Each structure stands twice: as structure tokens, then as C-alpha cells.
Amino acid sequence: MSKKIRVAVIFGGRSSEHAISCISAGSVLRALDRTRYEVVPIGITKAGNWVLEADDAERLTVKDGVFPQVDEKNPTLLFTPNVTATQIQVQGANPEFIANVDVAFPVLHGPWGEDGTIQGLFELAGIAYVGSGVFASAAAMDKAHLKAMMQSAGLPVGPYEVVTNAQWTAQREASLARIASLGFPVFVKPSRAGSSVGISKVKTQGDLIAAIELARQHDPKIIVEASIENAREIECGVLDSETGPKASVCAEIIVRDGHEFYDFEAKYVDDSVELSVPAKLDPELHEKLRALAVSAFLAMAGEGLARVDMFVTGTDVVINEINTMPGFTPISMYPQMWAQTGLDYPALVDALVQDALRRGVGLR
């Protein structure tokens, strides 16, 4: 009998998306085939401590409106970037060791997980990992840099302005003037956050400063985007393979009354959205969007997986964002799109692990 592949599923983290990461990880734990994989669940607490978590997918669910989080009382892990190290140490009075991890599955969203930082740690440690490398992860995490990359590649993006911490501190009036030039309404966002945290739709100049300060609670650098009114919000999943990236069918997010946009509560709390999978699109437009998603993935040097978010008005399309570790919660769009394309959840998780093993680490 061949040796099982040891997969470290890493979740939680220090970002504002800690709870969403835990929920996503629960789904991955549930999907991994235990006849093929030996699973090591590793949690990162909100304070940044690495702990050995229980292999309990049920615990990582929302219960009675309470979101899960990594248990800080669990045994602390020592994870070293030393490429010659062979084991992960469980610290305590009687230290234990976990044998070599073959592949890491970082089910982490936001800073310190989706932004190239932990990917750099895996590269140093010589551990294969699911998802994009250091550069693509960092570039996609920063909405301002991503838009610049898309523009450089000749791909369409909407009008936007970026305000850094230094600009907001020393050039506030000039920054507000640049934003006002976009016209209203606008969306004010943290430049390096996800799951719609800290995002506001602003309709008047008078509400702008409060929205900027809200976004700055999550990131001192903010991006302001001109609202593309009456646009359809279309998403497409990209999955890497040995023969190149493939696109899933597209899906549409339809926000019901009570939410002006696809905010955190609509995504995760009150079930206020309709997910149309596949999206009801003209076949020619559908193929155009799938091709654009792959082009965007290649333009940012993506690997593994990504969800490409687009706005569509008629036949006009702009790329909004790219997520290199999209949500894997039970209601997440990425796995739903691939299920409708013919790849169910367990097969998708397996494909991602196998792709990580195929690519390995280092320059490629």
C-alpha cells in the first residue's frame, strides 16, 4: 500500500477574514479523501500563534450566528522555514513531532495569508503549496497594483483613484478632489482586504471622509472606484493544470432588496443573494468572459486557482478584482462554478493538491 500524501490544511490567520478562513477550511477538511491523504489541520490564531487544530470540520461552521475561530488553547506548533528540517514540532512539556508535510493547503484569506507572505515561507521551507506564488499573490491582494497590471496587459478596468496613507495625511484635500473627479456614486475600499470588509458605497461628497476612515481601519491604503451602475456582477473560476489554465462556467451574483451591493452581510450572514450558476448569458458573451478570465490569470502570472470578478454592462466588460484564494465556504461561488462545469467539490480539492505537488517550489 502506497504512502498517503500528508496535507497541512492551514487556516484562521491574523486578518479580518479569520472566521471566513475557518469556515472555508472546514469544507476542505470534509472533502479531502482520507484514503489518499493524511491531514494535518493547522490553525493560526488572531494573534498569529500557530497551533495544532482538531480534525473536526463540524466545529468550523457558523452556529447560532457565532462564527468559528482557531482555538488558542490548542498545542503550539513550531513551523520552521529551514529547508533541511524534516518535522513540525508540537511544543509543550513533552514535545511531539509531525513527520514531513508533502503539501500545504493555505485556506487563508486576506493579509498574512493571501498576499504572498505565507507563500514566501513555504518557498523557504521547500514545501509545495496550493495556489499562486509570492508575486502573483501579493499583486492580486493589492487592488491598486492589480488594476495597474491589468491595464499594462491591455485588459479593461474601470476608473479608479488610489490614496496612500502618506497622501491622506499630507494631501487630504487634493486626494478628495481626485476622488470627486470620478463622480458619484463611488465605492471606497481597503486596497488590501477581502470578503467585502470595510467597503462603502458613497453617493455624496459629504459621506466620503467617513467611508475612507472606515476603509482605513482595515488598510491605510485605500482605493476608490467609480460605480458602474446597473452592471451585472459576473464571476469566473480559473483552475491551473499541466496543460494550462482552464475557465469554469461563469456565474452571476444577484443581490436582493436590502443590500445595495454584495457586502459582508449579504455574503455570509443573511442569505440576501441569488447565485445564478451558470449565468444567463448570450453564449458568445459567455465565452468572451471565460477567455478574459484566463487572460487576466496569465497576465498576473497566476498559479493554482483564482476567481476573476467582472462587471458587465451590455457587451462591455471590466475586470473588477481577482482572488487567488477565493472562499471555499458551502455557499462560495468558486466551487459552485466548477461543480456546474463538471468538477465536484472533492475532485476540485484533489485537483488543487495534485497541481501543487506537480509545480513544487522554486523558480518555475
Short description:
With 364 residues, this protein is an alpha+beta fold.
Mean pLDDT: 90
**Poorly predicted residue ranges:** 263-269
What class do helices, strands and sheet pairing give?
A: alpha+beta
Euclidean distance between termini CA atoms: 32 Å
Strand order in the largest sheet? 3-2-1-7-8
**What number of domains?**
3
> How would you sum up the major sheet?
5 strands, mixed
* Topology order in helix (H) and strand (E) letters: EHEEEEEEHEHHEHHEEHEEEHEHEEHH
Radius of gyration over C-alpha positions, nearest whole angstrom? 20 Å
Number of strands: 17
Q: Determine the strand fraction and express it as a percent band.
A: 15-25%
Indicate the CATH topology of the largest domain.
Answer: D-amino Acid Aminotransferase, Chain A, domain 1
Categorize the overall geometry: globular
The second-level CATH architecture of the largest domain is 2-Layer Sandwich
Class of the largest domain in CATH?
A: Alpha Beta
By CATH, the superfamily of the largest domain comes out as ATP-grasp fold, B domain
Q: What's the tally of helices?
A: 11
How helical, in percent, are the residues?
A: 25-40%
Describe the structure.
With 364 residues, the protein is an alpha+beta fold. It has 3 domains: 5-129, Rossmann fold, CATH 3.40.50.20; 140-156 and 229-359, ATP-grasp fold, B domain (D-amino Acid Aminotransferase, Chain A, domain 1), CATH 3.30.470.20; 160-226, ATP-grasp fold, A domain (Dna Ligase, domain 1, 2-Layer Sandwich). The protein is built from 11 helices and 17 strands. The protein has helices spanning 18-31, 117-125, 134-141, 143-152, 165-170, 172-180, 208-216, 264-268, 283-299, 333-341, 345-359, and strands at residues 5-12, 37-44, 50-52, 77-78, 88-90, 96-98, 103-107, 128-129, 160-163, 186-190, 200-202, 222-226, 232-239, 246-255, 273-276, 305-313, 316-323. The strands form 4 sheets. The chain has a 5-stranded mixed sheet, with helices on both faces. Strands 15-14-13-16-17 form a 5-stranded antiparallel sheet. The longest helix is centred in the last third of the chain and has 17 residues, at 283-299. The chain is globular. Mean pLDDT is 90; it is low at 263-269.
